[in-house]
Amino acid sequence: xxxxxxxxxxxxxxxxxxxxxxxxxxxxxxxxxxxxxxxxxxxxxxxxxxxxxxxxxxxxxxxxxxxxxxxxxxxxxxxxxxxxxxxxxxxxxxxxxxxxxxxxxxxxxxxxxxxxxxxxxxxxxxxxxxxxxxxxxxxxxxxxxxxxxxxxxxxxxxxxxxxxxxxxxxxxxxxxxxxxxxxxxxxxxxxxxxxxxxxxxxxxxxxxxxxxxxxxxxxxxxxxxxxxxxxxxxxxxxxxxxxxxxxxxxxxxxxxxxxxxxxxxxxxxxxxxxxxxxxxxxxxxxxxxxxxxxxxxxxxxxxxxxxxxxxxxxxxxxxxxxxxxxxxxxxxxxxxxxxxxxxxxxxxxxxxxxxxxxxxxxxxxxxxxxxxxxxxxxxxxxxxxxxxxxxxxxxxxxxxxxxxxxxxxxxxxxxx
Length: 416
Hints:
The protein is α/β, with parallel strands linked by helices. The chain has 2 domains: 28-243, UDP-N-acetylmuramoyl-L-alanine:D-glutamate ligase (3-Layer(aba) Sandwich), CATH 3.40.1190.10; 252-398, Mur ligase, C-terminal domain (Protein-Tyrosine Phosphatase, Chain A). It contains 18 helices and 14 strands. An 8-stranded mixed beta sheet has the order 4-3-2-5-1-6-7-8, with helices on both faces. Strands 9-10-14-11-12-13 form a 6-stranded mixed beta sheet, sandwiched between helices. Strand 2 (62-66) and strand 3 (72-74) form a beta hairpin. The two termini are 27 Å apart. Residues 7-14 and 400-416 have low confidence and may be disordered.
């Protein structure tokens, strides 16, 4: 039923009766008392899902829409459907999301900003969402060609979604971008709520460990604060978040135990800027302090030399790895820069153009009795093959002991 409603809502768009469309849109907005507009460089989709799950658990009838890896509409019962697009993405699809949420009787709509151009980000807020609560997860050096030229420029662009006379929550920890967001909040007459390090530190490893995927404490902290301000207590909100479906692009971990060796593999290939990648690495090193070895796997591409240089420059400032493995093509570019920056050659292995099977041998050789391996850089080529290996191997190991050999073979090949 929900999917049919969403597709039917897709027929609504701009037409000659623009004034009537605007009137109906304003009417739909007024029918949804809580409207939460989520923006930021990283974590938008995750935070959108976390907030919606927490509010649902608290008994607030909530719809949500993400724009991440796969655009999705999430309904009040937690089910979801892909957002239909007749052609390429257009910010006007936010109108039909609002229409669908109003038709479903939603008390809250949590919607991820889908615009990149600064002018369109502001348009999304002022005309299409008109949020009561805004969220800016962070402002990092990404898409500088559009939102730059620097991080403060990114913060200014993201601040286009600060609500008018509402509340804006931000979890950016640096003074420069935070002051930009604060100025935007003052300009639009909104209250600013900053999520500081102490709120992030309050999220325990035990709580993070109950997610089915790797979730950043920053994302959880800002989501919990919004839920609390809307009347949902911490424990209730967390239970909802733990039970919710994760975004398809979220970081996931896979555990493989073979031949007296435990390897936890973390898929972080989607974090494609050095700052976000470093943040993820440092978080995981702290989380996996008890393992014997922590291995940083950088999957390189010859045609992405700039990214290799950026990551090589950045990784020496992160918490150190016990070993660095370079896969893909153009690994010499990364290796030469990393050694110039102080990484010892005996802690670095180049596996130039090697297939996934060879990479697995390299990782096993470096892993000792237990290890955490984080894959980053690019997913193309051996990155995807490596991810497939860990996914399928874990599926087989997690299969019930009473499966027949034929059933295990079906699991291995993705048929079950």
